[in-house]
Design brief:
alpha/beta, 12 strands, single chain, 2 domains, TIM Barrel
Length: 400
């Protein structure tokens, strides 16, 4: 009953926050009112129950010491499963692969009860492992044309580009809260949103209406409002696609986009929303399969140590989890072998490798094991990513 009251209070607050003629709404992040007037907070969420920083300190290394090399490598993969029920293949990936998480596609989704049952059973099965560790269960639920869940009883949002027309951070925060609160109820804990790419080439851009706009500071401000709303709902938002997909006219699902701009241009434009997200405490950032030739003439961002470690971590100060876009996309597979892809993801700084059904994830884990055995990657390089993954799982209550 109290959640219904909160929802109504939130809607009433939004209705009362219309911009008056002559006013400009977007002048900085505007905090939601503390109370609705009836003593009830406008947005309250007890998801997730997060330990304090002091409680987290030291726990990741304790868990690392309990994991075998194979388990540590498995945690660095988030992957597909077949079908709408937990299958032998899903059980194999969880028990034999000790995978870090699962991404849901349309073929995994039939109806709300089925999806809630599937996600609950997946988590129950993961808790049988030793040591037990919950799964990331992620989904692309941006709004507009990119939304895996389209049930009748789920709120239907337009594309984020149209959210931005209100120039109101409170609208973005409220929309993000509602959208993410609904997928939380279905068993998800990770949403591959928001898109922080700029709307860079008008109707020619691949990103199009998935973007919040073309002004880097407005996109950054609205993006951080989205992050706040998603976190209040208990979902881990994933900012994407670093360092920016907005200038590309080539679809990285099929070909490798090449962008001819230098680092200074990126810092003053496409990187601004990501820097604002980093400063707001974003926990996870997804990479772009885009070649920025003036920064790294050989490797696209997903495989580039210069971009992920040098730029995102060292220069921009990001300490969270870096997740790749899915690695079976043509931008990578048409130019690199799968062994090169796995190796360079791990060396560049990717913590979590996203896999689609073009590959058997167990075989990818075995490739990483072979890279270790041949001395091409070290155990410390494996541990660095696992430590960040475990820390974030502890933060969001995925490790008891």
């Amino acid at each position: 009953m109290w959640r219904a009251s909160i929802f109504m209070a939130l809607i009433l607050t939004l209705m009362s926050c219309q911009t008056q003629p002559g006013e400009t709404a977007l002048k900085g992040p505007l905090p939601l009112p503390e109370d609705s007037g009836e003593g009830v907070k406008v947005v309250i969420s007890d998801y997730p129950v997060q330990p304090s920083v002091d409680e987290i300190e030291g726990l990741p290394d304790q868990y690392l010491s309990r994991l075998s090399l194979r388990q540590k490598i498995g945690q660095r993969f988030i992957t597909w499963i077949p079908g709408t029920v937990i299958s032998d293949e899903a059980e194999r990936l969880i028990s034999e692969g000790y995978i870090g998480g699962i991404i849901l596609y349309n073929y995994n989704i039939a109806d709300p009860l089925q999806l809630k049952t599937l996600t609950a059973e997946l988590q129950d099965y993961a808790r049988r492992n030793e040591p037990a560790m919950d799964l990331w269960i992620g989904i692309d639920q941006e709004g507009g044309r990119v939304r895996r869940i389209q049930f009748k009883n789920i709120t239907s949002f337009s594309a984020p580009h149209f959210w931005a027309k209100y120039e109101d951070p409170r609208y973005i925060e409220a929309a993000a809260y509602i959208l993410n609160r609904e997928i939380l109820d279905l068993g998800c804990n990770l949403n591959f949103a928001p898109v922080l790419d700029l709307y860079g080439n008008g109707d020619n851009t691949i990103i199009g209406d998935r973007s919040l706009g073309s002004d880097c500071r407005i996109v950054g401000q609205l993006g951080t409002s989205y992050l706040k709303g998603a976190r209040e709902a208990g979902i881990i938002p994933v900012a994407k696609h670093f360092p920016g997909h907005g200038l590309t006219r080539v679809d990285s699902h099929y070909e490798l986009p090449v962008v001819e701009v230098d680092e200074e241009y990126l810092i003053n434009n496409d990187l601004v929303p990501f820097q604002m997200a980093v400063e707001s405490g974003v926990d996870m950032i997804m990479t772009a399969h885009v070649l920025y030739r003036e920064i790294d003439p050989v490797y696209p961002a997903t495989l580039s140590r210069a971009i992920l470690t040098g730029l995102l971590r060292e220069r921009m100060g990001f300490e969270g989890v870096i997740i790749s876009d899915q690695i079976s996309m043509g931008a990578l597979t048409n130019n690199f072998s799968i062994r090169e892809i796995i190796k360079n993801c791990l060396l560049a700084g990717v913590d979590l490798i996203l896999c689609e059904n073009s590959y058997d994830t167990i075989e990818l884990i075995e490739i990483a094991e072979d890279l270790y055995e041949r001395g091409e990657i070290t155990e410390e390089e494996i541990d660095q990513g696992v430590r960040r993954i475990v820390k974030l799982k502890i933060k969001y209550g995925l490790i008891n």
